[in-house]
Write a structure and sequence with these properties.
Length: about 300
């Protein structure tokens, strides 16, 4: 059997503009796929209307284009895929791998929010649907960067939600259905999603889908060790000057800065990066940024005078 052509992807949720951490994941994923001569897909994970910011998806697509990170095939919009997720859910319900659940958050408070059996005190008009996680559901996988991983999904997570009580599709279901639909073989993303991976593998197995390889990139932490969020480094990246930004991201990805020294324009830089990229140099631990490490040219400072 021939192995499929490598295929990576970037799958932002349209909850805001791309910041350095999200662009680091996009560039890392693009590099891994393109270096291997593979495909790179794009997907907008807009299944959570309450968190969707109007115009954010279009702005994210523009930013990726400004940085020259071209994708293959059409952009996949999760908001257009209800029927596909419903079919996957129906299959799981029919085989009793999923069940309708009336438990509320307060019903589950006594078990620390973990669902092992239904304890609802009263039926709800809007029940959720959960995936049934049997005792002993130990998932093991080898992360391309973080090495061997294991999670006892029953003990640590319990029965997890596939369709929420508000009718929205849960990220876990949509992501596995779409990674398979887009032929993704390499999932490169931030380490904040490492903990979701075992759930996704259980779902892939239940749905008869191939399990991709996973690579969890380091998170960018601001000086006190917090994930970027309310700090300067969570400001949007500056699309007007892609070269210096990509050079900074390249260095953060552990790659030798000199490899990009002679590149004068964006196509030349991306071409050189794609050739010089070495996955073995990718950092394996989160990156603690010194104060001011992500200054101009990386950031678009909305406070700066124009
Ligand atoms: N949509 C998720 C996010 O923006 C990423 C999902 C993934 O890469 O699996 O955080």
């Amino acid at each position: 059997m021939t192995s499929p052509i490598p295929c990576g992807r970037f799958a932002p949720s349209p909850t805001g503009l791309l910041h350095p951490g999200s662009l680091l994941a996009a560039f890392g994923s693009w590099l891994l796929a393109r270096h291997a001569g593979g495909l790179w897909r794009l997907r907008i994970e807009d299944v959570d209307p309450p968190r969707t910011v109007p115009g954010a998806a279009q702005a994210q697509l523009r930013t990726l284009a400004d940085f020259g990170l071209a994708h293959d095939g059409p952009v996949l919009w999760q908001s257009e895929r209800n029927a596909v997720y419903q079919a996957a859910l129906d299959g799981l319900l029919a085989s009793d791998l999923a069940f309708v659940c009336h438990c509320s958050r307060s019903d589950l408070a006594a078990s620390g929010g973990i669902h092992h059996r239904c304890v609802a005190r009263s039926p709800r008009p809007d029940p959720a649907v959960r995936f049934r996680v049997l005792p002993g559901s130990m998932v093991r996988f080898v992360d391309g960067l973080r090495g061997p991983q294991q999670q006892d999904v029953h003990a640590e997570v319990g029965d997890f939600v596939l369709r929420r009580a508000d009718g929205c599709w849960a990220y876990q279901l949509a992501v596995v259905v779409d990674d398979a639909a887009q032929g993704v073989t390499e999932v490169v993303r931030g380490a904040d999603l490492l903990d979701s991976t075992a759930r996704q593998i259980l779902l892939q197995q239940a749905l008869g889908l191939a399990v991709p390889r996973y690579w969890h990139l380091p998170l960018l932490l601001d000086a006190p060790g917090h994930k970027l969020s309310k700090s300067l480094a969570a400001l949007p990246v500056d699309s007007a000057r892609p070269l210096p930004v990509l050079r900074q991201l390249w260095a953060l990805l552990g790659q030798p800065p000199a490899a990009l020294d002679d590149c004068e324009d964006l196509p030349a830089l991306l071409q050189a990066a794609r050739h010089a990229f070495d996955p073995a140099r990718l950092p394996r631990q989160d990156i603690l940024l010194a104060d001011g490490a992500l200054s101009a040219p990386m950031l678009q400072n909305p406070l700066s005078p124009t």
